[in-house]
Every structure is written in C-alpha cells, then in structure tokens.
Amino acid sequence: QVQLQESGPGLVKPSQTLSLTCTVSGGSITMNYYYWSWIRQPPGKGLEWMGAITYSGSTYYSPSLKSRTSISRDTSKNQFTLQLSSVTPEDTAVYYCVRQSGPWIWGQGTLVTVSS
C-alpha cells in the first residue's frame, strides 16, 4: 500500500525559500510510469497544481510558478522535494504531495504559513 507523507517547516518568512519533502513508502518513486506531484490549496481557495517529477526524473511545472519552483528527488531515500523561492503571504497554503497516476494517492497535507 503506497503512502505519502509531507514534512517541512510550518512557518516561512517572506522572501525566503519554502522547502518540503515527501517520503513515499510502499512503492518506489522510480517505478514505471508514475508521476509524483505537488498540489497546494490556499485558505478558502481551490487546488493548484504546482509541478511534478516523473519516474525517470523529468520535471514539469505550472507556468505561473515555474520561475520560482524546483522539484527534485532522492531515489536512495525514496523522497521527492519541493522548493518554492521568494515566497509571499499569498503562498500560504496546505501543500500536498500526490501520486498523480494510476489511482491518485494523496499525502495528508501540511500547512505552510508565510509570515514575518
């Protein structure tokens, strides 16, 4: 049974870089042909897809966030990470890591607040 778990700081200061890690258990992130994504939901708003890294390590980003977003992976730890630079209070959201293929599988989500 595949499970995903987000981890990282819950509070980030404006202009800093938000960094989150998703640890995957029960299946390898290199298994064909899965995509591993980050999706966020600001308070009171809808879901926003941020980007994904594939089983082969290719990355895809939302055009609106591409200049500030980086997704990478550590296959030895079966983890993938999100970095979002130059954050503002508008980046406050619940961040989810998601297996975005086959049946979608979501992590529980983690609230990140951007505030000084």
Number of helices: 0
Strands, count: 11
Oligomer: single chain
Helical fraction equals: under 10%
Low-confidence stretches: none
Query: What is the typical, i.e. mean, pLDDT?
Result: 97
What can you tell me about this protein's structure?
This protein has 116 residues and is mostly beta strands. Helices cover 0% and strands 50% of the residues. The protein contains no helices and eleven strands. Strands 2, 4, 5, 6, 9, 10 and 11 form a seven-stranded mixed β-sheet that branches. The chain has a four-stranded antiparallel β-sheet with strand order 1-3-8-7, with no helix packed on it. Strand 5 and strand 6 form a beta hairpin. It is globular. The termini are far apart. The relative contact order is 0.32. The mean pLDDT is 97.
Topology at a glance:
Layout: E1 3-7, E2 11-12, E3 18-25, E4 35-41, E5 48-54, E6 59-61, E7 69-74, E8 79-84, E9 93-99, E10 105-106, E11 110-114
Parallel strand pairs: 2-11
Antiparallel strand pairs: 1-3, 3-8, 4-5, 4-9, 5-6, 7-8, 9-10, 9-11
